[in-house]
Amino acid sequence: MRIKKLTILILLALSVMGLVACQKDGVDNGDGRSQSARTLDEIKNSGKIKIGVFSDKKPFGYVDEYGEFQGYDIYYGNRIAKDLGVEVEYVAVEAASRAEYLVTAKVDIILANFTVTKERMEKVDFALPYMKVALGIVSPDNALITDVQQLNGKTLIISKGTTAETYFIENHPEVNLLKFDQYSEAYNALLDGRGDAFSTDNTEVHAWAIENEGFFVGVESLGNLDTIAAAVQKGNTELLDWLNNHIKTLGEENFFHQAYEATLAPVYGDATDPDSLVVEGGIVE
């Protein structure tokens, strides 16, 4: 009887040890529970950093015709990897799942045009900002929406998990929302006439309207002026501190203005002032 009890205790101890080991190694148990983020040393020793980005949000994060990630966020991610002395692995994420990729330690950093909000700060830790943004509304030229009141009773296309979704649910319940998981699906719905307009970051709708004849951004700024920043798993202060110090260092060389010229200027041309979008050194002016 004593041997049987001892065997059970040993098995229980081994099970607990295995569970702790899985959590420490950042293994996803498949149930959405938080997993331990990798330390800086673990990232460096692995030789690779995993960064969550968009694959369909041109010109900020997208996959080009050669299957390569490109865009403003990618330009920044490449520099992070270079200065850490590691390679970068980009992981495609959707707007609604960005925080969960950090919670479950599937990525080390999110650089997916992530707007800083109080609700999101409860789930993740944001570094200093590198961009500023508000909401915008794009619609067909022949039925242009120039005021949010014109959407009363109409259908507005949005992407799930975005600040646009939150803003319209809280402030304009009279607007019918047609929601999609991916930005590409949302834009296709606008092209197909399944909605009257589409709302997301004004920086993105401007870029899209420039490349799609017959559409125009009738509402250029809606809601608060927000900031966009890199995010890490909540409590991962080591990586967060590194990112904040890195942002300050990059500010000394006007890095994000360089990123703008390389990735955004070819799209925006003279339509946008870089200083209206770019944040250097984490300081919003």
Report on this model:
By secondary structure, the chain is of the alpha/beta class. It is globular. Helix content is 39%, strand content 25%. It folds into 2 domains: 153 residues, Periplasmic binding protein-like II (D-Maltodextrin-Binding Protein, domain 2, 3-Layer(aba) Sandwich); 92 residues, D-Maltodextrin-Binding Protein, domain 2 (3-Layer(aba) Sandwich). The N terminus is likely disordered. The protein has a 5-stranded mixed sheet, sandwiched between helices. The chain has a 3-stranded parallel sheet with strand order 5-1-6. The chain is built from 10 helices and 11 strands.
In a nutshell, what does this entry contain?
This protein is of the alpha/beta class. It has helices spanning 2-24, 40-46, 72-84, 98-103, 118-121, 163-171, 183-191, 202-211, 237-251, 255-268, and strands at residues 48-53, 56-57, 61-63, 69-70, 87-92, 109-110, 124-140, 155-159, 176-180, 197-201, 215-233.
